[in-house]
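for the writeup, i need someone to sanity check this before i put it in the appendix. the sequnce is what the collaborator sent (i think, or maybe the updated version? ugh). structure was predicted straight from it, no edits. if anything looks off just tell me and ill rerun, i have time this weekend
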Amino acid sequence: MTGPEESTRDRLLEAAETLFSDRGFESVGIREIAETAGVNLSGIKYHFGSKHGLYLETIRRAMDRQGSTEVWALLDVPAGTRERAGEMFRGFVEAFLRVLLRSDEAGSSVCLVMQSALESGEATDVVVREFVEPHHARLCRFVGQLRPDATRAERSRAAQSVMALLLHQRLFRPFLDRLDRDVRGGGQSASPGEAEIVGLAGEIADFALRGMGCEDLVGRAGAGADGTDQGVRR
C-alpha cells in the first residue's frame, strides 16, 4: 500500500512532468508545481531538496519508465572483436528505436530534454551534466570498439551523429509518417510494427557504420547487443 510520503512524492513528480514538458524548466515555479500536485510547498524541499533536484528526478523517472536505462547498459558489455561490436551496435540501434517508437513513455522524456535544450540556460547545463554527457561518453567508448584508430574528436562526432539519426525518428515522427503515406498505402502508423523497426534499425546502423568508415561491418546480421539472433528476428 502506498504511504502518504510516497503519494506526495509521486504527485509532485506527476505535476512536474506535465508542467516541465509543456513549458520548460525556467517558466515553471515551485509554487505552481506544489499547487498543481495539491501538496504543501515544503514537500519539494523535503523530497527533492530543490527545484533542480525535482527536475532531475522527473527526467530520470520518465527515462526509467520507458526502459532506456536498460538499452544504454547494452553498450557497457565489452565486444571483444570489431565484428562482434558491429553486431552489438546493430542490436543497440534496434533496441533504442523500439523504445523510442513503441513506448508511450518515450515522448515524456524526449519533451523534457528538448525543452531544456530550447531554453539553453541552467536547466540545459544540468541535463547535459547528469544525462547527456554520461550517455555520450558511453557511446564514444563503444565507437572506439568499432574504430580503434579513431581520434577522440572522431569518436565524439560519430556518437553525436548516431544520436541525431535515432532521435530524428521520434522528434519528427508526425512528419515522417506523412512523408511515408504513399509507402504505407495512404494511412499513418501510430506505432510502427516489429518488422518496420527491425528494417529501419538495419538501415540506420548501416548508414552510421559507413559514416564511421566501417564499411566491412555493414550488412552483418548476427547476434545483437541483447544476445538475440537478428537474422531470425528479421
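Residues 222-234 have pLDDT under 50 and may be disordered. Residues 4-51 form a domain with the Arc Repressor Mutant, subunit A fold (CATH 1.10.10.60).
thx in advance!!
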